[in-house]
UniProtKB/TrEMBL annotation:
This is 50S ribosomal protein L7ae. Transmembrane segments: none annotated. It comes from Paraclostridium bifermentans (Clostridium bifermentans). GO terms for cellular component: ribosome. Pfam families: Ribosomal_L7Ae. InterPro entries: Ribosomal_eL30-like_sf, Ribosomal_eL8/eL30/eS12/Gad45. The keyword Metal-binding does not apply. Keywords: Ribonucleoprotein, Ribosomal protein.
Amino acid sequence: MNNNEAKIYSFLGLAQRAGKLVSGDDSTMLEIKKNRVKLVIVADDASNNTKKLFKDKTSFRNINCVTYSTKLQLGLAIGKAPRAVVGIKDASFANKVLELIENTKI
C-alpha cells in the first residue's frame, strides 16, 4: 500500500467518525436521492449491477462516482463489515479523497 492509499483510507475513517460518511447500498442510495452525497466510492469487486446502478444514479445527479479498492478494504477503513459502496457527505472530505484517488491511479 502506497502513501496515497493509506491517506485515502484514513480520510474515510475520519469521515466516518465525523458522521460525514454513509455506507452500504441502501443507505448510500437514500442519501444520493436526497442529494446529500458529494462523492460515491464503489468497490472494484462490487457486482456489475451495483456499479451500473450507482454510476447511473450519480451521473443523473452530477455526483462524482469512482470505482476504487475492495469491499473488504472499504469496510476496514470505516471500521465496519465489508462494504461495496460508501458515500461521502462532506464536500471538503469528498474533494480531498477524490484528488488522492486520481493521483493514485496515475
